[in-house]
Amino acid sequence: MSIEENIIFVDEAAGSDESGLGTKSAPYKTPLAAVTAIAGMPEEKQALFKIHVKKAGGEEYGEITATALKKTKKAHENAVKKAKKQTEQMAKDKSANDAKAAEEQQRLDESKGIVLTEDPSLPKAKTIRISESVENRNTRVRVSGWISSLRVQGKSMMFVVLRDGTGFLQCVLTDKLCHTYDAATLTQESTIAISGEIKEVPQGKNAPDGHELVADFWEVIGKAPGGDDDAYGSRFNADSDPSVLYHQRHLVIRGETASSVLKVRARVLRAFRDHFDGVGYTEVTPPAMVQTQVEGGSTLFSLNYYGENAYLTQSSQLYLETCLPALGGVYTTAESFRAENSHTRRHLSEYTHCEAEVPFIDFEELLTRTEAMIKNVVNRVWAEPTTRAMIQKLNPDFKPITEPFVRMRYTDAIAWLNEHGIKRQEDGKDFEFGDDIPEAPERKMTDAINKPILLTNFPGPIKAFYMPATKEDPRVTESFDLLMPGVGEIVGGSMRIFNYDNLMAAFKREGLDPAPYYWYLDQCKYGACPHGGFGLGIERFVAWLTNRYTVRDCCLYPRFPGRCLP
Fold first, then answer.
1. Rounded to an integer, what distance in angstroms lies between the CA atom of residue 176 and that of residue 218?
2. pLDDT tens, residue by residue, 503-543
3. Do residues 516 and 291 lie in contact, with contact meaning Cβ atoms separated by under 8 Å?
4. How many CB atoms lie within 10 A of CB 81?
5. Parallel/antiparallel/unpaired status of strands 140-152 and 191-200
6. Rounded CA gap, 527 and 325, in Å?
7. Residue 8 bridge partners (DSSP)
8. Is 294 exposed, middle or buried (0-12, 13-18, 19+ CB in 10 A)?
9. pTM of the prediction?
10. Helix residue ranges, H only, 360-515
11. What pLDDT, on a 0 to 100 scale, did the predictor assign at position 452?
């Protein structure tokens, strides 16, 4: 500020209210800043100062007009009044908050002296799981679990929704039960045990299963952290980035949606086993550490096996084939591993692989058995009321399949894509025989047809070495994929080469050393037979059943490129 000349400079284009000094070389940006700069001076001294303003786009400074000065001073007065009011309000709020904090602290201090004791005159509480609540209404029970949610109503009532993995139960705490230190500091995800009677809720009120536990005693087993930083609700929320949700997966699975998907998955696994047991297949458990490949060497996870090269299994298929002469039809449900650097929503590096092999069948029977299996498993899952209710909540539009699956040859799929203007992404041209149909076009076709599709007879060069050519057309194989709307491929299968010479030719064609496969080749020597099988991805099946966007949400702890925690 030019004290000698008593002039304050304002440049509306180049000035700055934050860093300006009111000098010609460092002007303010607005007249309000100039008025504010001298506002603390006596009025007679303020009158000595003049404000010179250079308008935006102007070249010279000019003295501010009387009208503009009056308007600026009025704006300054209003700003001062507003700031004073805000200061007074802040002081008032601080006083109220301090009083509330003191009251809360007094309540906490008093609550430490309140001790709950179980009334010995009451009947002994029966320990139950929440899933057993309905049949134990009007009986004094004891339930333990995690607090899914809690709500305080006034000073003498709390509603706690308890979760124990078998269901949810609303519990009501009143009077003294709400006044203890544990009640005052209770947090979400703490574990507690509550005793009381389960009563139906009044008409018009809502609670899980239509009832609530009216508590007469409760105790904390393990208290979860509170506060802003470490509380359960601070770790993630529904809008968190997927990377956060996967990093906090151990906590995410406590939520109703994630736990429901896992429960449906468990029921699906049991349904597959029940189906296979029902058709007379034997379950086997092949090794996960192997020295052979099934689906191509580029997707193998390598490991050092006591100084030898070994891999995590891509598939148990070859081992299942060796079981046929000993056990007949066989199946396994085990983990498979693919070192495929894919980030699509339907790929995992580790997934649960349901595989089966059956002797003495032909290709048509293999297709028929696969379709029957899918329908039977769905019906078994759907028949269980609790699981059906979860599926209906997760996927309201789902209905069990009743119509026959669509049968479509690979050549027909190529024609369908071209007829519907779906082009190859790499060059924008029509698909041709021999092309490996990518995921996106395949899903467009599947979603458009909107029915399960058994896509059959793929060309040999794009399928695995063990798939035999058809008699009618040696260019294509007795192979199939089962495509489901919304998910795409969930099953891949084929007949298997069982002629020794043909199998050796396949090894040679693929550049595979047959020596490590001696045990597999022996199946062609010691009583070969026509046989076929398939592999199904459990996560993809569950994603289809529960309408999940990605298979990553359909397993406990997903493994994919960049994620091997928790």
1. 11
2. 999 999 999 999 999 999 999 999 999 999 999 999 999 99
3. yes
4. 10
5. antiparallel
6. 8
7. 51
8. buried
9. 0.83
10. 363-382, 385-394, 410-419, 439-449, 500-510
11. 97
